[in-house]
Amino acid sequence: MEQCIPLAATQVGDRVWVVGFRGKDGINRLLSLGLNPGMELKVVTCSPEGSVLVTVGDSCFGLGAGMAQKILVTANFTSIKKKEKQMIINSSTYLRDMPVGTKVRLVDYEKVYRGYKGRLLSMGLTPGTEFTVISHTSLENLIEIEVRGFKLSLRKQEADALCVEEVGDD
């Protein structure tokens, strides 16, 4: 059984993987910090109060005790993908269910058919990208979205490949 602990409870030299975030807007908070579930962190320093300094690849950054207490990590990498997928399923929905005018963030791809993922990537639909639902057309079975200033039309079956979550107006 995998044990998740707060990042604040780690020791210097620990190599851990991000599992989730405890608190409101879990995955949104992680993404806003530049952290994704499954991302490897190496603990450089940690204070008795709980603040930590970690490296991610070639980057190094510090987190206060409050934030480090909310970030959940594990030393066991094997079940990260299963946890990550469950977090995505729990916090996301289909694009077709979003009303017109809703701003959403692409979390992941759910049902991607052969070659279609490459097409989505080439259209700028990468995980973390925010876009707005412009319209739903019933006759043509299309969903129109605006991504980075460009309007795209997706068939509803294609839109179902996108796992999205609503973005609040910050």
Summarize this structure as a short list of keywords or feature phrases.
SH3 type barrels; six-stranded antiparallel β-sheet; 2 domains; 170 residues; elongated; 12 strands; alpha+beta
Summarize the structure.
With 170 residues, the chain is α+β, with helices and mostly antiparallel strands. It has helices at residues 26-32, 65-70, 80-91, 116-122, 156-159; strands at residues 5-6, 15-21, 40-46, 52-56, 59-63, 71-74, 93-94, 103-109, 130-137, 142-147, 150-155, 162-166. The longest helix is centred in the middle third of the chain and has 12 residues, at 80-91.
Give a description of the structure.
This protein is an alpha+beta fold and 170 residues long. It has two domains: 86 residues, SH3 type barrels; 74 residues, Ferrous iron transport protein A (FeoA) (SH3 type barrels, Roll). It has five helices and twelve strands. The strands form two sheets. The protein has a six-stranded antiparallel β-sheet with strand order 1-6-2-3-4-5. The chain has a six-stranded antiparallel β-sheet with strand order 7-12-8-9-10-11. The longest helix has 12 residues. It is elongated. It starts with a strand and ends with a strand.
